[in-house]
Amino acid sequence: MSFEAPALLLGLLVVPFAAVGYWLVQRRRARYAVRYSNLDVLASVAGTRSTWKRHVPAALLLASLAALAVAFARPTVTVQAPDERASVVLVVDISGSMRAQDVQPTRLAAAKEAMMSFLAQAPDTLRVGIVAFSNEPQVIVSPTLDRAQLKQGIQLLEPAFGTALGDAIARSVDLARATTAVSGQQAAAPVKDAKGRALASILLLSDGFQTRGLLSPGQGAQAARAAGVPVFTIALGTEGGTIVDREQVIPVPPDRETLAAIAQYTGGEAFDAQTAGALKHVYQGLGSRVGRRDRPREVTSAFVAAGALLLVGAAGAALLVAPRLP
């Protein structure tokens, strides 16, 4: 938390001075004493009072003073808000190994459902593109705000053959240099925020080792790093995943090491999903994170409201704990 007028925080000094004053008043002895011979009768008439309850009004009043003093300093907090210039490219592996059923119902079906959940969590202002890759990468949908078009593109995904991982990353980097929302011109590099961070990112899902392509995964990662585009990777599947091809059972474990190295090298994060539920959770979490930037928000009104409520509470508590005679 920061403050627009931090010097006014000196007003908080009123709180300890008021607390000390209250303590001194409580310690002061009564000036006059009343004599009453029958103490049992007096006790039955006056009743008993809880020691701590009589201090509640003062505590609420001090808390109210503290809240109002902070409000005068105009506090601000940093929140994440959608950035209308941001974009993300969803890169999905559609190689033959995505037919494996170790992730129910199949790896590709689970991936398609998880991509739908990403769209549900992502800000409406986030431009999303889709790249699918097998023997070569293919742009399914260019970055757009049209969620219906994106959902249609996801539904069209079907498993194919090989895995051209490096080419897919490089093609996604090109797509990340998308049309800017302001000028409508092709950008030489992804749009960046005030701190120089790219507002474009790549979310790459793959379930196997590279088997096709002109570029290696490392070369694809170099292209992403040179462009300042972080790559978030998801390794889908289990070590026991298999597919049947020409009556042969072929093991198709995910290449977690390569995907983790790509994420680390480009400044992204690596995730591991061995179930459909875990995959959906990853996509939902990333959908609520990407495409947002830190923005200051003044919360003076919240402290003023808290101070007012505490003040009302102090007045109410004072009426409740005030001594009453029968």
What distinguishing features does this structure have?
10 helices; Rossmann fold; 11 strands; 326 residues; six-stranded mixed sheet; three-stranded antiparallel sheet; alpha/beta
List the helices and strands and how they pair.
Blueprint: E1 2-3, H1 14-27, H2 39-46, H3 56-72, E2 75-82, E3 87-93, H4 107-121, E4 127-133, E5 137-144, H5 147-155, H6 165-176, E6 200-206, H7 217-227, E7 231-236, E8 242-245, E9 248-251, H8 256-266, E10 270-273, H9 276-287, E11 292-298, H10 300-321
Parallel strand pairs: 3-4, 3-6, 6-7, 7-10
Antiparallel strand pairs: 1-2, 2-11, 4-5, 8-9
Helix pairs in contact: 1-3, 3-10, 4-5, 4-9, 6-7, 7-8
CATH superfamily of the largest domain: von Willebrand factor, type A domain
What's the architecture of the largest domain in CATH terms?
Answer: 3-Layer(aba) Sandwich
CATH class of the largest domain reads: Alpha Beta
CATH topology of the largest domain, anyone?
Answer: Rossmann fold
Q: Quick check: average pLDDT?
A: 85
Low-confidence stretches: 179-188
SS-based class: alpha/beta
User: Helical stretch count?
Assistant: 10
Approximately what portion of the residues adopt beta-strand conformation? Answer: 15-25%
- The ordered H/E elements are EHHHEEHEEHHEHEEEHEHEH
Strand order of the largest sheet: 5-4-3-6-7-10
